C-alpha cells in the first residue's frame, strides 16, 4: 500500500519535522514573550526540547519547556495566547489571530470569549440547540475556563492550544 499523499503531508525527513516543530515553538514564544525566552536559550536547550519530545522523555522536555510557560506575576498572563482553531466545515485549514488572555479591565478572558470573537458560529446556535463540540486533547473544556489556564495546562508540545470544533453527532 502506498502513502496516502492526498490525506497526509509527507515529511521528507526527521530534520524537516524538527525544523517545523522548532518553528512552531518560536512562533508561540513570539506571541507569549516577544521571543525573549526562546532567544535566551542555547542551541543545546533547543536540542533538549526536541530530543525529549522525540524520545518520549517528559522530564527532559519539561525541564526546558517550563521556561516557555512562565510569565511575570504582574502581567497576569502571556502577551497573546498561541492557538489554532480547526473546523471540519470550512475550507480554511485553521483560524489563528492575536488574542490576549486578559481583558483591558483586568478580567481573565475565557475559552467562550475567544470563540465569541474569533469563531462565533462555534457557540452561537440560533435556535439554542448545541450544534458543536469544542475539543482540546479529546476533552470538552467548559467555555468559562480561563484561556491563560488552558494555555498553561492544555497546550500541545509546540506550545499552541489546538482547538477542534466538531459538529455535534446527530444520532
UniProtKB/TrEMBL annotation:
Residues 14-70 form the Autophagy protein ATG5 alpha-helical bundle region domain. Pfam families: ATG5_HBR, ATG5_UblB. Residues 80-165 form the Autophagy protein ATG5 UblB domain. Keywords: Autophagy, Cytoplasm, Isopeptide bond, Membrane, Ubl conjugation. GO terms for biological process: macroautophagy; vacuole organization. It is a peripheral membrane protein. Its main location: cytoplasm. Forms a conjugate with ATG12. Part of the minor complex composed of 4 sets of ATG12-ATG5 and ATG16L1 (400 kDa); this complex interacts with ATG3 leading to disruption of ATG7 interaction and promotion of ATG8-like proteins lipidation. Forms an 800-kDa complex composed of ATG12-ATG5 and ATG16L2. The ATG12-ATG5 conjugate interacts with RAB33A; this interaction is bridged by ATG16L1 and promotes ATG12-ATG5-ATG16L1 complex recruitment to phagophores. Interacts with TECPR1; the interaction is direct and does not take place when ATG16L1 is associated with the ATG5-ATG12 conjugate. May play an important role in the apoptotic process, possibly within the modified cytoskeleton. Its expression is a relatively late event in the apoptotic process, occurring downstream of caspase activity. Plays a crucial role in IFN-gamma-induced autophagic cell death by interacting with FADD. Belongs to the ATG5 family. This is Autophagy protein 5. It comes from Pan troglodytes (Chimpanzee).
Amino acid at each position: 500500500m502506498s502513502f496516502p499523499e492526498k490525506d497526509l503531508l509527507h515529511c521528507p525527513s526527521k530534520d524537516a519535522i524538527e525544523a517545523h516543530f522548532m518553528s512552531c515553538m518560536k512562533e508561540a514564544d513570539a506571541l507569549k514573550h516577544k521571543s525573549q525566552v526562546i532567544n535566551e536559550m542555547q542551541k543545546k536547550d533547543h536540542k533538549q526540547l526536541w530530543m525529549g519530545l522525540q524520545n518520549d522523555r517528559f522530564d527532559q522536555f519539561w525541564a526546558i519547556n517550563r521556561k516557555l510557560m512562565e510569565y511575570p506575576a504582574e502581567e497576569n498572563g502571556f502577551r497573546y495566547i498561541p492557538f489554532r482553531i480547526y473546523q471540519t466545515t470550512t475550507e480554511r485549514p485553521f483560524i489563528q489571530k492575536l488574542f490576549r488572555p486578559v481583558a483591558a479591565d483586568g478580567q481573565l478572558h475565557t475559552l467562550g470569549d475567544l470563540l465569541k470573537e474569533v469563531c462565533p458560529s462555534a457557540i452561537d446556535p440560533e435556535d439554542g440547540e448545541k450544534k458543536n463540540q469544542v475539543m482540546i486533547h479529546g476533552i470538552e473544556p467548559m467555555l468559562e475556563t480561563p484561556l491563560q489556564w488552558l494555555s498553561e495546562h492544555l497546550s500541545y508540545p509546540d506550545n499552541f492550544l489546538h482547538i477542534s470544533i466538531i459538529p455535534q453527532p446527530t444520532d
